[in-house]
Amino acid sequence: MARFLSGDRGALARAISWAENADDRFQAALSGVYERVGRAVRVGVTGPPGAGKSTLVNEVARLLREMERTVGILAVDPSSPFTGGALLGDRIRMEERTLDPGVFIRSMASRGSHGGIARASVDACDMMDAWGLDEILIETVGVGQAEYDVVAAADTVVVVLCPGAGDGIQAMKSGLLEVADVLVVNKSDVSGAARLALDLEESVHIRATTRKHDEEKWVPPVVSCSAGTASGVDAVIEGVESHRRFLADGRLEGARGAKRVEQVQRVVTERLAEGVWDARGWRTEVEVLLGSGDTPYDVASQVLGEILGGIPVAGAPGARKEAGCS
Ligand SMILES: Nc1nc2c(ncn2[C@@H]2O[C@H](COP(=O)(O)OP(=O)(O)OP(=O)(O)O)[C@@H](O)[C@H]2O)c(=O)[nH]1
Ligand SMILES: [Mg+2]
User: Given ligand 1 and candidates 45, 46, 53, 55, which is best to mutate, with the most ligand atoms within 8 Å of its CB?
Assistant: First the structure.
């Protein structure tokens, strides 16, 4: 860890690879630097394909560098089984940034069958945080649950939309608005951008006025910009900073605490699946039980009973009895 702590980029990259591959060495690596975790600001950037997320991340990083903040960029592609062309493209596009020693860029794609990409993303952010980067930008395409889990690990979530391709309506349907702390209408140079911004303002307003009065909740600002022409990007940063000020009022600690609990849950689930389920080779046993006419639920209860050894399992009256036999 000495190299990591002295600012060695290779050491950071290696630690992130351990996280990505669920390598046993990650646990000790994180322990060694954990007291340094918590200083970085984490911003998730999501939105439909082609909305301009990478272009915006690149521009935001450039402005943050002008403000003398160091920047980590994590490009996560949860759905792709390959380290696909898009991420490679992003890398090349961000080349200008990669020459800057104050910027660290990393791509991650989920591989293997267990997913774990949300867990690995948090791990990567923790490592970049401990390494000393001030701001961490996490880009992922907003499509499904896995993607939400990735950006939800951030303190502030920026949803990037652009005119065309179903735009606002699509976003509302897919639940993107629910996760947004800042709504960005990118490509303001393209026609339809002003209309989209108005539509979004309206939905945000309706949402804010229909919810319960006792909740003092954040109302996401709608910010227009054109990342492609580097105009209005400072307003995006201002939107993120206003959310940060809202969080600073004691809310950040609570939100981060809840996310730590979720991370523990992910690690437990992953290790149960890999270490206990896969390693033991339950398949034959399960086949025998199923062959005797038990339902999949009954068999699952028996397996869980054995794994958890005496811990009560939902719907498993016989499970504890089974546990004694293992
Ligand atoms: N006209 C216009 N085009 C833009 C703007 N920002 C980005 N683009 C273009 O939109 C296309 C997609 O941009 P990306 O930044 O790759 O979008 P993305 O959301 O990261 O795309 P994926 O990662 O593939 O989902 C590129 O051709 C950009 O040049 C903008 O402000 N105006
Ligand atoms: Mg991109």
Answer: 55
